[in-house]
């Protein structure tokens, strides 16, 4: 059952949790005692503008989050310096201002949503030494401050009038408490993220408060519970192949509920023992039924990040390659959070295939934390027809990451994959060569077939509006004019502003666009609303960032591109023509 803790990345994650336990446990008791639960959630959530700013200006994200936390803590401390009972109201006002600033920065200043998901939701799987240092520093500072300022926090919290009578007049200790809450929230970013930090800062302290009456006992019990829930949640996440942050949050919430119910409805000793045994059995069953173990099979072990790379690699590798595909159908690669099984599979992989151009940038941390030594191949860097990418922010790439929508680029990718597999397993060279040759012939048929299909649509009718800017390679190959995109970016993390939508609507009307094409992996509501507003149709769906599920028209790379051609042609011609290609 303890096998997950033999893995290096799990050991680092456990160390992060144990270091954070002191800071989160101690500060959590003060948060609950002083009624600062909403503030603690707000100061973490309000890291959003700092994260966007850091991403847009290319400086460390943690520094941006810390800046936001200090601004929020300082703002709340200053606005409540005379009326401490207004914490919640003032916190709400400051939080709204911070979130509004973040939205404006993301949509109107940097024109992207910024790559902040990992810090908003956390990922214990990719902690690095700097995260461990920050957690250790936070715990040391909180422990020292609690020893020095704890009596004042306690006195001020219970009876402000008596505190003033005793000479505790300075707002400094309260301001220090607010700053320390922000420090621990920032230190928790790598573990649970800004949106789930409450699971460490508030829930364990609220749980132990139900059974502890003395402050010192309460604090020690909370530190122990944070450590226990963090390590147990990490273990569950590995066993169930779930994100660690949500697993810890769910476990913390479940523990609070169980303790609260136990206090409300006292159980007889035998009943309590039976309930505890059942809970342990359930956890054991969850671990034994794990889906999180990296699967192995015959042939060279290969990890491919995207659905397209996974399909191409299976076609080339055949029976001589065991392919672990990280992204699943209809999973947005721009917003993906790595799972424990991804790291475990990478540990034993001989080859890791990347799409490149920042589409799967998260894979770099996975490889680093896995402890393995695979050959990492950037497939996108080897394709011939590379189109311009984003131009601003650290996510900016010189090239558009959606290169696979051009079958000529897919041909180059197949050759790259063939060569990578051959280097890893020379004894299967002949098989890889035969499979690649056969697939290259299919790609040639696909390209020629799409060319024939689009001959049915006059060039003037080939006007494309999609969910996001993912089809430049396809449009460039087949003479399609891109009018615009609902999300004006090559990443789905961006958010369109009101001005963006207004300009797109005007362009669609001016160009007399007949169809807007939603994508299978992106919410289609905004595209459908724009279609209703402009009189266009939004009935034709494309496969943009991922393949479709098994049994769908986009289940493989070949059928996906044929399906996209079919949907586009129907949209361009008012459903008078479709696209069918034999032999795929």
Average pLDDT confidence is 83
| Residues in helix, % | 55-70%
Counting helices, strands and paired strands, the structural category is mainly alpha
Using only CA atoms, what is the Rg?
Answer: 27 Å
H/E element sequence: HHHHHHHHHHHHHHEHEHEHEHHEHEHHH
- Gross morphology: globular
Strands, total number: 6
Main sheet overview: 4 strands, parallel
| End-to-end CA span | 46 Å
Beta-strand percent range: 5-15%
- Which stretches are low in confidence, meaning pLDDT under 50 for 5 or more residues running? 111-115, 275-295
How do the strands of the widest beta sheet line up side by side?
A: 2-1-3-4
How large is the count of helical segments? 23
Short description, anyone?
By secondary structure, the chain is mainly alpha-helical. The chain has 23 helices and 6 strands.
């Amino acid at each position: 059952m303890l096998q997950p803790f033999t893995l290096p990345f799990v050991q680092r994650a456990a160390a992060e949790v144990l270091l954070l336990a002191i800071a989160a446990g101690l500060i959590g008791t003060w948060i609950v005692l002083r009624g600062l639960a909403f503030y603690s959630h707000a100061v973490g959530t309000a890291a959003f503008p700092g994260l966007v700013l850091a991403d847009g200006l290319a400086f460390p994200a943690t520094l941006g989050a810390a800046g936001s936390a200090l601004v929020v803590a300082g703002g709340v401390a200053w606005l409540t310096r005379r009326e401490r009972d207004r914490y919640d109201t003032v916190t709400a006002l400051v939080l709204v201002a911070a979130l509004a600033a973040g939205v404006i920065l993301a949509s109107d200043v940097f024109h992207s949503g910024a790559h902040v998901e990992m810090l908003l939701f956390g990922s214990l799987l990719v902690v690095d030494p700097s995260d461990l240092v920050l957690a250790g520093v936070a715990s040391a500072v909180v422990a020292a401050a609690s020893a020095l300022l704890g009596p004042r926090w306690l006195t001020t919290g219970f009876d402000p009038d008596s505190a003033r009578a005793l000479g505790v007049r300075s707002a400094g200790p309260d301001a220090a408490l607010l700053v320390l809450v922000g420090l621990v929230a920032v230190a928790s970013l790598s573990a649970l993220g800004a949106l789930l930090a409450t699971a460490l800062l508030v829930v364990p302290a609220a749980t132990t408060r139900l059974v502890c009456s003395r402050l010192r006992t309460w604090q020690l019990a909370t530190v122990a519970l944070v450590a226990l829930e963090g390590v147990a949640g990490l273990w569950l996440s590995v066993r169930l192949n779930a994100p660690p942050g949500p697993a810890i949050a769910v476990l913390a919430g479940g523990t609070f509920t169980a303790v609260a119910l136990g206090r409300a409805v006292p159980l007889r000793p035998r009943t309590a023992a039976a309930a505890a045994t059942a809970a342990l059995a359930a956890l054991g069953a969850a671990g034994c039924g794990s889906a999180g173990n990296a699967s192995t099979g015959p042939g060279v072990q290969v990890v491919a990040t995207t659905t397209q790379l996974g399909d191409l690699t299976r076609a080339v590798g055949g029976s001589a390659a065991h392919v672990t595909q990280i992204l699943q159908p209809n999973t947005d690669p721009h917003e993906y959070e790595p799972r424990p099984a991804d790291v475990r599979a990478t540990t034993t992989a001989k080859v890791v295939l990347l799409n490149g151009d920042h589409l799967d940038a998260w894979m770099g941390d996975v490889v680093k934390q896995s402890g393995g030594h695979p050959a990492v191949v950037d497939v996108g860097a080897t394709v011939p027809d590379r189109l311009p990418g984003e131009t601003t922010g650290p996510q900016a790439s010189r090239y558009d990451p959606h290169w696979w929508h051009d079958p000529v680029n897919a041909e180059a990718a197949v050759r790259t994959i063939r060569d990578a597999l051959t280097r890893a397993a020379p004894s299967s060279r002949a098989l890889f060569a035969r499979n690649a040759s056969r697939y290259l012939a299919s790609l040639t048929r696909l390209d020629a077939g799409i060319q024939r299909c689009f001959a049915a649509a006059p060039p003037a009718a080939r006007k494309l509006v999609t969910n996001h800017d993912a089809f430049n390679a396809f449009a460039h190959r087949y003479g399609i004019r891109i009018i615009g995109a609902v999300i004006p970016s090559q990443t789905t993390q961006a958010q369109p502003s009101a001005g963006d939508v207004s300009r797109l609507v005007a362009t669609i009307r001016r160009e007399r666009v007949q169809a807007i094409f939603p994508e299978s992996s992106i919410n289609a509501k905004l595209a459908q609303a724009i279609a209703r507003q402009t009189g266009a149709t939004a009935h034709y769906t494309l496969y943009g960032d991922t393949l479709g599920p098994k049994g769908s028209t986009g289940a493989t790379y070949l059928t996906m591109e044929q399906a996209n051609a079919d949907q586009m042609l129907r949209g361009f011609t008012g459903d008078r023509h479709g696209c069918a290609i034999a032999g795929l």
